[in-house]
């Protein structure tokens, strides 16, 4: 027996919306009907597919089915668009979940929306995730594509080089005068207050590892906002490692100081996507390659 499309749609919508109630509203049926369809699907496959948590999450078997459901939906939407019958989608658009690191989102990624063909029946569902951790979402099947710092393709995916994001160490001139007035600025790094994005952020560790004879950094303030992070550096809360594209104007205007000229951290970024024939993913990939021209070193 093949999988019933109504059952598969109910399952995928529960995952997408986060609850049976929200899925019922989306599909214009009762929560009881959604629950019954999911139970029938689980009975048919002989597997528990959903963890009844808040939000609802997929089990390991459910992750495999979720990926299949997204692929089926995308192929159907592309087929209807190609044969000139997009009205059969009922006005719906194909959701394409993509994981993007916050620095890319704040510098160059948003241009992708402008570069996609007008009228394309696609909605990008952006998930903010660290470039070192987005591979997990791909592996789980939660996203169809990801901007990642890993060059190794995830199983079932392809990987293409996008370019290099350069990070520079910056501080306000007043802060630098107090903490980096000595000749050995590298040695001063372990005493001067530092700003980090969050506890997943390893960029400072990688940057410091490039420098000789430099101890562990402390103390650290965490500010999980890219614009807020740069603003805090300008106000003298600490020094921080920031994308070159985001602080270049501040450096030119004298609001920020590159405290270690010639020292930087280059992070190569790659576009990972599901290995499947998809005109939509092809178009998104092409837009990505255009957009990186303004934010990455290519």
From TrEMBL:
List keywords of the entry alphabetically.
Answer: DNA-binding, Transcription, Transcription regulation
Decide whether keyword Electron transport is in the record. no
Question: At the top level of its lineage, which domain of life is listed?
Answer: Bacteria
InterPro entries the UniProt entry points to: ArgP (IPR017685), LTTR (IPR050176), LysR_HTH_N (IPR000847), LysR_subst-bd (IPR005119), WH-like_DNA-bd_sf (IPR036388), WH_DNA-bd_sf (IPR036390)
**PROSITE patterns, from UniProt?**
HTH_LYSR (PS50931)
Q: Where are the transmembrane segments?
A: none
Residues in domain HTH lysR-type? 3-59
| Family, as annotated | Belongs to the LysR transcriptional regulatory family.
Protein name, UniProt field:
LysR family transcriptional regulator (Chromosome initiation inhibitor)
């Amino acid at each position: 027996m093949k999988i019933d499309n109504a059952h598969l749609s109910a399952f995928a919508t529960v995952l997408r919306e986060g609850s049976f109630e929200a899925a019922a509203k989306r599909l214009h049926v009762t929560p009881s009907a959604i629950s019954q369809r999911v139970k029938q699907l689980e009975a048919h496959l002989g597997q528990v597919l959903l963890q009844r948590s808040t939000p609802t999450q997929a089990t390991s078997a459910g992750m495999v089915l979720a990926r299949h459901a997204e692929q089926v939906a995308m192929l159907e939407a592309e087929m209807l668009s190609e044969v000139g019958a997009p009205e059969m989608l009922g006005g719906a658009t194909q959701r394409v979940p993509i994981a993007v690191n916050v620095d890319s989102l704040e510098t160059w990624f948003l241009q992708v929306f402008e570069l996609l063909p007008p009228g394309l029946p696609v909605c990008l569902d952006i998930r903010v995730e660290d470039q070192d951790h987005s591979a997990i979402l791909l592996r789980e099947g939660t996203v169809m594509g990801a901007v990642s710092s890993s060059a190794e393709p995830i199983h079932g995916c392809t990987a293409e080089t996008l370019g290099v994001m350069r990070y520079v160490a910056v501080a306000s001139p007043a802060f630098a005068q107090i903490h980096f007035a000595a000749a050995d600025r590298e040695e001063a790094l372990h005493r001067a207050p530092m700003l980090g994005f969050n506890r997943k952020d390893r960029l400072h560790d990688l940057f410091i590892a490039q420098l000789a004879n430099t101890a562990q950094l402390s103390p650290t303030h965490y500010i999980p906002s890219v614009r807020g992070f740069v603003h805090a550096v300008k106000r003298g809360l600490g020094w921080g490692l920031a994308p070159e594209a985001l602080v270049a104007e501040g450096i030119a205007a004298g609001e920020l100081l590159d405290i270690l000229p010639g020292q930087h951290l280059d992070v190569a970024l790659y576009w990972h996507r599901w290995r499947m024939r998809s005109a939509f993913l092809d178009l998104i990939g092409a837009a990505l390659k255009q957009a990186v021209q303004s934010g990455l070193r290519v």
